[in-house]
Design goal:
10% helix, 19-stranded antiparallel β-sheet, 19 strands
Length: 325
């Protein structure tokens, strides 16, 4: 049994099992703990996310208590979950949704120093799976329960798969029977070990059997024309939403990721469209000052599957075909 991942009871629909998880990381590989989830297909062609993760990065705020510590510690830090035994998990049904909430105590962890930097926080992830639509949402909330103000600089709302294309032999490492030794930035803190590459990065599949050419198209709500009018009302995009269309024009199958964000928050996608080992990250620049006792609710991400057996406007596939070119 792998102690790295702490899995929780899944939410289920006819399309997916959505399994909340905490990745407790690996000190030897310098992987830090993170909240996340897997989206495991029940439908033959449904997309797959395996061990997707989310991060929140911060720095100490200027002034206030602990000024000396702040001056001495200017490195970027990450708010990471701790205390496996204190994690809380609950589920509920609301309307047409199944909802799970996962919360964990958390602390600041230095990105360069690789040491704990103090602070007290609660990291909460709220997962929502629609009962009848291929639709999933997730949202992170950070609560500052300590006495140290921080600036939330950016948040990785979704990261799965390698973010750079793999060489042909490297892509084969995504098969369960293939393992490799990872290069470390420094001498390992524990004995070196071989890891399946999927375990290290997670995996993303639009179709578990095919490897069609993939493409992506980023747009702001109001620019999608016929696509927006063809979406179910549960996927309605506000005019402040940024959306990423990721998929295959060849197979008429795509994922729509949408984020409602204020104009001050900038969504930055990074896409590796390698069909055999695709990767995707969705990050948000926030620069939000989080005082003691305050909470920050980050924008929710909505992922909607445009299934190949449904009818969507031709402009969707033309946009993906043009992006591929």
């Amino acid at each position: 049994m792998d102690d790295r991942y702490q899995n929780f009871p899944p939410l289920s629909s006819r399309f997916w099992d959505l399994q909340p998880l905490i990745d407790w990381g690996d000190a030897g590989l310098e992987d830090r703990p993170a909240v996340g989830f897997s989206l495991l297909p029940r439908h033959r062609q449904a997309p797959l996310f395996e061990n997707a993760r989310a991060f929140v990065n911060a720095r100490f705020a200027a002034g206030g208590r602990g000024g000396l510590v702040r001056r001495m510690t200017r490195e970027e830090m990450r708010i990471v979950p701790i205390a496996r035994e204190k994690v809380k998990f609950a589920t509920v049904s609301e309307g047409g949704w199944k909802i799970a909430t996962l919360s964990s105590p958390a602390v600041l962890y230095g990105m360069k120093s690789e040491v704990r930097r103090g602070g007290r926080f609660t990291l909460e992830m709220r997962y929502s799976l629609h009962n009848r639509l291929p639709l999933v949402r997730w949202q992170i909330t950070v609560r500052n329960t300590g006495k140290t103000a921080v600036t939330i600089q950016n948040a990785m709302l979704f990261r799965v798969g390698p973010l750079k294309p793999r060489k042909q032999h490297g892509r084969l490492d995504f098969l369960p029977t293939r393992f490799r030794l990872f290069s470390l930035k420094r001498s390992p803190k524990t004995q070196s070990a071989y890891y399946n590459i999927t375990q290290r990065f997670g995996s993303l599949r639009l179709h578990p059997l095919d490897t069609p050419p993939l493409a992506h198209h980023l747009f702001i709500a109001g620019q999608a024309g016929a696509l927006e009018s063809s979406l179910p009302r549960e996927v309605a995009l506000s005019h402040t939403a940024a959306a990423l269309l990721f998929g295959s024009a060849e197979n008429h199958s795509a994922l729509l990721f949408a984020l409602d964000a204020s104009p001050a928050a900038e969504l930055t996608p990074k896409v590796n469209a390698d069909p055999l080992a695709p990767g995707l990250s969705l990050s948000l620049n926030t620069n939000f000052l989080l005082h003691e006792g305050e909470s920050l609710e980050l924008p929710a991400i909505t992922a909607f599957w445009l299934a190949p057996d449904e009818q969507y406007p031709d402009e969707v596939w033309r946009a993906l075909e043009a992006a591929k070119g």
